[in-house]
Amino acid sequence: MSDVSTAEKPALKNDRFIRALLRQPVDTTPVWMMRQAGRYLPEYKATRSQAGDFLSLCKNTDLACEVTLQPLRRFALDAAILFSDILTVPDAMGLGLYFEEGEGPKFKKTVRTEADIVALPKINPNDSLQYVMDAVSTIRSALGGSVPLIGFSGSPWTLATYMVEGGSSREFRHTKEMLYRTPELLHALLEKLAVAVTDYLNAQILAGAQVVQIFDSWGGALAHREYVEFSLKYMTKIISGLIRVHEGRSVPVIVFTKGGGQWIPQMIDSGADALGLDWTTSLADARKIAASRVALQGNLDPNTLYGSPEQIRKSVAAMLADAYASNQERTGYVANLGHGITQWVDPNHAGVFVDAVHELSAIYFK
Ligand SMILES: Cc1c2[nH]c(c1CCC(=O)O)Cc1[nH]c(c(CCC(=O)O)c1C)Cc1[nH]c(c(CCC(=O)O)c1C)Cc1[nH]c(c(C)c1CCC(=O)O)C2
C-alpha cells in the first residue's frame, strides 16, 4: 500500500473546498472545473505528445502529475483533480481500452453475456491500477498542501454502458436491451463494478486523495425508476463502503449524475456530502429542495466560456445569486461547470470564470 503517514504530509493551506463540501464556514466560494487538465491548454497538448498518447500519459506518473498541476499554475483553483480516466477500471478488468483519434474511447472486448460477466476478474487496485495510486501520491506530494486533491471513479452504471456498448454511445442500445430483457445480468455486472469501484476509491484515499467524486455521466439516460434501481442504488452501496475519515480529516464524497437534477431528494439519501449538478437545473430550486442537508456543486454551462469575458462574468454573477438565494449559511456550495470544459475554450476565458467566482462572491461574505 502506498499509504504515507500523516507526519510526512503538510497541512492544507487552502481547505475552503473541503469546508464547503462539509458545510462548514468558508471565506469565499471555492471553485474548480471538471476536466480542468485537458486539450484546451496548449501545455497539456505538448505534454501529451511527449507521452505519446492519452493512455500513456495516464500511466506515466511524472507526466500525469505535470498535467494535473498545469491548470493550477494558470488559475486560482481551489482543488486539483487526479489526471486519469474513469475507464481505467474496465481496462484493468482486461477489456483492452484504446482511443481512436477523434472517436473517443473504445474497448477490444465487450461484456454482453452471462459468461462475459462471470469472466470479469476481481481487481486489486494496488496491482493493475497501481499506476493510478502512484499518480495520486506523487501529485499529493507535489501539491505540498496548497489545495486538496480530488480522486474519482465512474459510477457502476456509467462504466457498464461503456463495457456493454464497447465504447461511447448515444442510444445505449445494448445496455438498455440488457436492462429490460435480462435485468438480473445487468445487476450482476453492476454488483461486480460496485465492489471494484469501492476498492478503487478506497485505494485512492489511502494513497492521498482528500475528496472523491463519482462521475455518473450517463445516469440521466435512465428512466426515473431505473435510475434508482440501476444507478443510485450502487452508488449508495459504494458510499457506504468508503473510508470517510483519513489522516484525521473527513473525506467528502461528491455524486455527479449528469442530467440528474430531478432526483435531488433521492440522491441525498445516497449518503453523499455533495451533489454535482449540470446546467439544466436551477441552483436556486436545487437549494430549496436540498435545504441544508447536502452541499451542491456546479453548474455553469461549459459553453458559456465561448462568450466574452463580460458575458462570462454576468453568468457567474447569476449562478452565485441562485446558489445563495435561499442559503443564509453561505456555505455548502462549490462553483464549477455543469460538465467538463471543452477543448475549444480559450484558456483566458477559463481564468475569467475562476476569478469571477472569487471576486463576485465577495458580496455574500461581508
Ligand atoms: C465519461 C468519462 C470519461 N472519462 C471521464 C468521464 C466522466 C466525466 C464526464 O462525464 O465527462 C472522466 C475524466 N477524464 C479525464 C479526467 C481528468 C481529470 C480532470 O481534469 O477533470 C476525468 C475526471 C481526462 C480525459 N479523458 C479523456 C481526455 C481527452 C483525451 C485526449 O487528451 O486526447 C481527457 C483529458 C478521454 C475520454 N475519456 C472518456 C471520454 C468520453 C473521453 C473523451 C474522448 C474525446 O473527447 O475525444 C471517458
UniProtKB/TrEMBL annotation:
Q: What is its main location?
A: cytoplasm
Question: Where is substrate bound in this sequence?
Answer: 35-39, 85, 162, 217, 339
Q: What class does this enzyme belong to in the EC scheme?
A: lyase
List membrane-spanning regions.
none
Instruction: Give the keywords, sorted.
Output: Cytoplasm, Decarboxylase, Lyase, Porphyrin biosynthesis
User: A single Gene Ontology molecular function, please?
Assistant: uroporphyrinogen decarboxylase activity
According to its UniProt record, in which pathway does this protein act? Porphyrin-containing compound metabolism; protoporphyrin-IX biosynthesis; coproporphyrinogen-III from 5-aminolevulinate: step 4/4
Question: What does the similarity note say?
Answer: Belongs to the uroporphyrinogen decarboxylase family.
Q: How does it assemble?
A: Homodimer.
Tell me which HAMAP family the record gives: URO_D
Supply the name of the protein: Uroporphyrinogen decarboxylase
The species this protein belongs to is Aquirhabdus parva
Q: What is the lineage of its organism?
A: Bacteria, Pseudomonadati, Pseudomonadota, Gammaproteobacteria, Moraxellales
